[in-house]
């Protein structure tokens, strides 16, 4: 599990610090406007990854600052099926470290006044040219993720509070929830 989390974090960091990445996968296809599915014939799995969506902070034409959110999940074989768990990733870009300490990586959501703690299983950081990036991964059950994304949840990562109410963020989350809801269940 640890090596899986570290490989996901490494993939997120490469995308964060490089404008172009080399794809070693066999076939890419769009899934909605904001997600891409990539089939790896060697691993016999399809990885679906969303683009990142700004949660807060100023956007710059050169690089984003603040915290961004995205999702990824794997499906067995070359077809898309609804996963049991979705990996939610957060990417922070800024002038200094914000989530380096373990206590700064607590992830809590409030949904209908219920407090939901989600474990953050991985953290990676990288010094880039004049800024740092930090990425964190949290596994969330798909049914809970759908509730969080469509139910007006509020969240806190460390001491950083966020909501999903900004129109661009809400549209992004609605599309992801719609895609996940429409995927067929897995056949075991």
User: Strand portion, in percent?
Assistant: 35-45%
Count of beta strands:
12
Low-confidence residue ranges: 13-27
Element order, helices and strands?
Answer: HEEEEEEEEEEHEEH
Give the count of helical stretches: 3
**How many domains comprise the coordinates?**
1
Structural class: alpha+beta
Binned, the helix content reads 10-25%
Outline the structure in words.
With 188 residues, the chain is an alpha+beta fold. It has one domain. The chain is built from three helices and twelve strands; from the N terminus they run H-E-E-E-E-E-E-E-E-E-E-H-E-E-H. The chain has helices at residues 2-17, 142-150, 167-182; strands at residues 27-31, 35-40, 45-50, 53-56, 66-76, 85-94, 107-111, 114-118, 122-127, 132-141, 154-157, 160-163. The strands form two sheets. Strands 1, 2, 3, 4, 5, 6, 9 and 10 form an eight-stranded antiparallel sheet that branches. A hairpin with an 8-residue loop joins strand 5 (66-76) and strand 6 (85-94). 28% of the residues are buried.
Q: Can you give me a brief rundown of this structure?
A:
The protein is an alpha+beta fold and 188 residues long. The chain has helices spanning 2-17, 142-150, 167-182, and strands spanning 27-31, 35-40, 45-50, 53-56, 66-76, 85-94, 107-111, 114-118, 122-127, 132-141, 154-157, 160-163. It contains three helices and twelve strands, in the order H-E-E-E-E-E-E-E-E-E-E-H-E-E-H.
């Amino acid at each position: 599990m640890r090596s899986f989390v570290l490989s996901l974090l490494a993939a997120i960091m490469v995308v964060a610090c490089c404008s172009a990445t080399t794809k070693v996968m066999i076939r890419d296809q769009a899934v909605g406007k904001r997600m891409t599915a990539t089939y790896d014939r060697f691993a016999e799995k399809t990885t679906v990854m969303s683009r990142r969506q700004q949660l807060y902070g100023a956007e710059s034409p050169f690089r984003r600052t603040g915290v961004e959110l995205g999702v990824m999940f794997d499906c067995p074989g070359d077809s898309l099926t609804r996963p049991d768990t979705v990996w939610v990733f957060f990417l922070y870009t800024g002038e200094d470290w914000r989530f380096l300490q373990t206590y700064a990586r607590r992830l809590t959501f409030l949904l209908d006044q219920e407090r939901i703690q989600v474990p953050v299983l991985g953290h990676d950081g990288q010094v880039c040219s004049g800024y740092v990036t930090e990425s964190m991964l949290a596994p969330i059950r798909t049914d809970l993720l759908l509730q969080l994304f469509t139910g007006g949840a509020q969240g806190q990562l460390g001491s950083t509070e966020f909501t999903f109410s900004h129109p661009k963020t809400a549209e992004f989350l609605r599309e992801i929830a719609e895609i996940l809801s429409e995927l067929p269940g897995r056949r075991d």
